[in-house]
Amino acid sequence: MALSEAPIFVGIGGDSGSGKSTLARAFYDLFGEDRITTICLDDYHSLDREERKLVKVTPLNPRANNFGLMELQLWALKRGEAIEKPVYDHSDGTFKEPELLEPNEVVVIQGLHPFLVPGVREAFDLKVWLDPEPELRLAWKLQRDVAKRGYNEGQVQAELEARRPDAEKYINPQRQHADLVVRFYRPKPEHRDMGHLNVRVVQRHTLPRLAFDQRLHDGEMVNLQLDAVDEDGRRSDVIEIDGRIPSDQAASIEETVWAHAHKLHTHLHEVRPDDLGAYDSPQRQRHSDPLALTQLILAHRILSAQKSLLVRVNDRGLVAGNKHGETLMVQTGEAG
Predict the structure, then answer these.
(1) What's the start-to-end Cα distance of the chain, in Å?
(2) Bridge partners, residue 184, by sequence
(3) How many Cβ atoms are within 10 Å of 106's Cβ, its own excluded?
């Protein structure tokens, strides 16, 4: 497939069970299946499940992954070339026949190691890190691995304990390279259902401040804090979404996001609010308004990354403009 311009590369990283696939699920509806390509970086494991057991390494360890092939193929996609991508099957932990993968307008790449290797990290136009509350990630991983990957609860617990040193060494440090950090967390310890979780979206100053952001000031259920210092000591703007947000308020904010998105991105597909925010519960698929808002804000960010050109003004700030010559926002602080 020949592209008129380079595809926009979006990296979504986080430890196993952090919600990467759930967050990215809505993008097919938002962009259209004919305009998006997705890759799971688990396909670049170099050892299958049994081989990892034999040599006693976890999937998080670089020794269990072919980062060289990953880098070569991602940059080929970035140049608009098709690739023969390996395929790792989580249902049985083995490799299947490679598949032909074509680039597209938007390429979403999700996995454990999107920002570990500098040569891979530099390919992304937008870097997103998922960092849910640890207790939630444990519950989500248990639910997924038991239901979909053939493990029992004891095996999942043992695997988590075995991989903890590698997570601290290879996974967690990648958060510092992200442009956006998304954290789902419980308003109260007993609340585990995603439908009512709070969300914190940390927008680092490597991103332009969009006009939409200003509409969130002083909101009760969705609020924007400017120039905060995040957990990694980075200057950031922080959007807080209250898990108790009523559906009518969530719909009103979604309409505001749509209005801003359509000013610059008329080719974004508008979908019904109920089609966003879908997540799997043990019984059935359910809907979360905070998740839907997060997905829509992220989609707007993806398109803004495609349209924006960042120009350094001085050592304290940057100015952002788009392809239409419109200024989005002058931002002070840490420029990236």
Answers:
(1) 32
(2) 199
(3) 24
- 10 Å CB burial of residue 225 (0-12, 13-18, 19+) is middle
Contact 224, 263 (CB under 8 A): no
- 263 contacts 303 by C-beta, under 8 angstroms: no
DSSP helix/strand/coil, 48: coil
Predicted model pTM: 0.85
DSSP letter string over 289-312? HHHHHHHHHHHHHHHHHHHEEEEE
Contacts of 231 (CB under 8 A, 6+ apart): 175, 181
Q: For 234-288, how does the pLDDT look when each residue is reduced to its tens digit (9 = 90+)? A: 999 999 999 999 988 888 888 888 777 766 555 556 666 566 888 877 667 788 8
| Residue 261, token pair as written in the block | 């998105």
Tokens linked to 36? 């998006």
Beta strands 106-111; 36-40: pairing state: parallel
* Burial of residue 50, with CB atoms counted within 10 A of its CB: 0-12 exposed, 13-18 middle, 19 or more buried: exposed
Q: Residues with Cβ < 8 Å from 312, sequence gap 6 or more?
A: 318, 335
CA distance 316 to 32: 39
Q: pLDDT at position 306, please?
A: 61
CA distance 24 to 30: 10
Cβ atoms within 10 Å, residue 205: 20
Contacts for 11 with CB less than 8 Å, ≥ 6 apart: 109, 110, 114, 115, 121, 124, 126, 127, 128
Q: Give the closest residue to 194 by CA, choosing from 73, 288, 62.
A: 288
CA distance 271 to 30: 7
Element spanning 165, H or E: helix 153-166
Please tell me the least confidently modeled range out of 139-153, 222-236, 293-307, 308-322: 308-322
**Alpha-carbon gap, residue 65 to 29, rounded angstroms:** 31
Please compute, for residue 143, the number of CA atoms within 13 A of its CA located in the half-sphere on the CB side: 18
